[in-house]
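Please, is this right?
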Amino acid sequence: MSDPEPCKMEQEDTEEQRRHTGEKMEETGHSILSFDGVKNHMCSDCGKTFMRDAELKLHQRIHTGEKPYKCSHCDKRFAQFGSWKRHERTHTGEKPYYCFSCGKSFTQSSSLLRHTRNICLKSH
């Protein structure tokens, strides 16, 4: 098996390249975090490892049961912001993901992607 071709994005020092690798900008006041693939943040409950501390903190909610996001329409609570936001759309009917080929809209980006691949791209 041959070595994978190096990512061309990593050969340039641009803001776009830093976003691609996960490196944070100095201007934000956060320390620079380069993406090196090392998972050095370990969950003390189950041993699962993560590349970023923020990912570990999200994971730990599985063990603690913490659900800081509450639906404004019902009593459901969520551990992750994205899950909460997706649930809120079931009440509001918001469909922010729009197919530019046919005009159909979706509540989730994954639904738009599936639609684009399986419906719109195949029909054109």
Summary: The radius of gyration is 20 Å. Strands lie at 41-42, 49-50, 69-70, 77-78, 97-98, 105-106. The chain has a mean pLDDT of 78.
